[in-house]
Amino acid sequence: MKRTMRRxxxxxxxxxxxxxxxxxxxNAVDIKGSAFSPVDFKEYRLLIGQGASPTEFSLIxxxxxxxxxxxxxxxxxxxxxxxxxALESERLMLETLEGxxxxxxxxxxDERKSRLKHHEDGARE
Length: 125
What we know:
Elements: E1 6-12, E2 18-24, E3 28-35, E4 41-50, E5 58-63, E6 67-76, E7 81-91, H1 93-124
Parallel strand pairs: 1-3
Antiparallel strand pairs: 2-7, 3-6, 4-5, 4-7
């Protein structure tokens, strides 16, 4: 049996997801595209949902390795019909920013406590 490969191109360069509606015959789909961020890429997830407006998606591939114009994954349709292919990517920036804000808040609180203690110690003398 000859396998027919279909090429589907996707690209996302940030925390946004991207969806592509397409019709698949019961055969293999070779998925190529890009999922990257220039400085703070965390991971991408490639998902598939059956129907024109699926409410559930299945994970096809997940990777913490950024991809530029290359293979993201492959998938085999089990039945003919419409599918939505979704590509999501995450960046570390949000987590890094939240962590930095939390550290700054703690540092300010520690400094406030230190000044208050210094002030109380000075008042006792």
